[in-house]
Write a structure and sequence with these properties.
Layout: H1 3-9, E1 11-18, E2 21-28, H2 34-44, E3 52-53, E4 57-62, E5 67-72, H3 73-83, H4 93-104, H5 110-117, H6 125-130, H7 137-142, E6 158-161, E7 164-165, E8 189-191, H8 198-201, E9 207-218, E10 224-235, E11 238-249, E12 253-264, H9 265-270, E13 279-290, H10 291-296, H11 309-319, E14 324-331
Antiparallel strand pairs: 1-2, 2-4, 3-9, 4-5, 5-6, 6-7, 8-14, 9-10, 10-11, 11-12, 12-13, 13-14
């Protein structure tokens, strides 16, 4: 059995059509194989990818307007590459860079190169293996070997209309702004004063579809955790999804980027005209704090409490702290 066919067997698919929307989720039960990883590397144009990537995807399509929202690892990593985030240096950064170079390759010391030229590797193989690579993080950065190893992405999903990408919106200052695109559609993400209807989201309606999908994860060479996941819930009243990027670099910082999308399906049914479309609200919550900032405001600095994104979200919600919120609306 081919690797691709085997991957298809290891995935679960769910779908539902309701109030003019078609929702499809594909959840992979195993990490990508080498062929899939190579494909992602070629698409994203980098050899640096998270060690755990999943061939999973969530799609929501509005049939009448052909507006579609897509969430997958490849698109998220494309935006990570474009973001040009500041490189975070951990306390034992030299040790981390050594592990990084062992994984991806890098320059050897001058002494090692001389030994290679003199053909002494066989006689001194054991000693050579023990030789510590000379590391200069600033020099590596100048050479382009340094990159955002936390895989922090500003990704909030891909929004298309009839297959055309309409950008990330004008709010949030991330991704491609709608105003920067040449487009034949007037459908755009726009800032709004409307907020997510919490009463709607907490209704106990029967669930038509629920899924929770991991897109990628990294243990950051034992320096913490980085993950991107998406959850979807569809009821007769609404569909709601949460895209969450979570980062914890032990002893350095935490970073959370949560994007919530919601469509009130009752609006369409209650509309007086057959041409009435839909309204999708998007809320983006951005949080970042260093370990010292957490300590200064009395929040927990126990790394164990921040390993799991769901548990960490509860800890941070209870402890307060600075959060930047962006609210947008897409009228279809």
């Amino acid at each position: 059995m081919s690797e691709c066919a085997d991957a298809l067997q290891k995935s679960n698919k769910k779908s539902v059509s309701i109030s003019g929307w078609h929702v499809h989720s594909t959840k992979s039960n195993s990490i990508m194989g080498q062929r899939e990883i190579t494909s992602v590397e070629e698409t994203v144009r980098t050899k640096h990818v998270p060690e755990m990537m999943f061939n999973s995807e969530l799609r929501l399509k509005h049939a009448q307007s052909e507006v579609e929202f897509t969430f997958n690892a490849t698109e998220a990593l494309k935006e990570w590459m474009l973001a040009k985030n500041e490189v975070i240096k951990v306390k034992n950064s030299e040790r981390w860079m050594q592990l990084h170079l062992e994984r991806y390759g890098g320059k050897k010391t001058e002494e090692e190169e001389n030994k290679r030229e003199e053909g002494k590797e066989k006689n001194e193989e054991t000693q050579s293996e023990r030789t510590t690579t000379v590391l200069d993080i600033d020099e590596l950065a100048k050479e382009g070997s340094s990159y955002d190893w936390t895989f922090t992405t500003p990704y909030r999903g891909t929004t298309t209309v009839r297959g055309e990408d309409i950008g990330g919106g004008e709010g949030g200052g991330e991704g491609v702004n709608s105003s920067e695109l040449n487009s034949n559609t007037n459908i755009r993400w726009k800032p709004t004063e409307e907020r997510l209807d919490m009463a709607l989201l907490t209704r106990r309606d029967p669930i038509e579809l629920f899924d929770e999908i991991s897109l990628y994860e990294s243990e950051l060479d034992d320096h913490g955790v980085s993950s991107l996941s998406v959850k979807i819930r569809v009821t007769e009243s609404c569909w709601f999804l949460l895209l969450r990027f979570w980062l914890c670099v032990d002893g350095v910082l935490i970073r959370s980027r949560e994007t919530r999308l919601c469509c009130d399906l009752r609006r369409r049914r209650d509309a007086t005209t057959a041409k009435a479309g839909a309204v999708v609200l998007r809320e983006t919550r951005l949080r970042e704090e260093t370990w010292s900032q957490l300590k200064d405001r009395g929040a927990s600095t126990d790394a164990k409490q921040y390993k799991d994104a769901e548990a960490a979200a509860s800890v941070l919600l209870a402890g307060g702290g600075p959060v930047r919120v962006v609210n947008e609306k897409l009228e279809i």
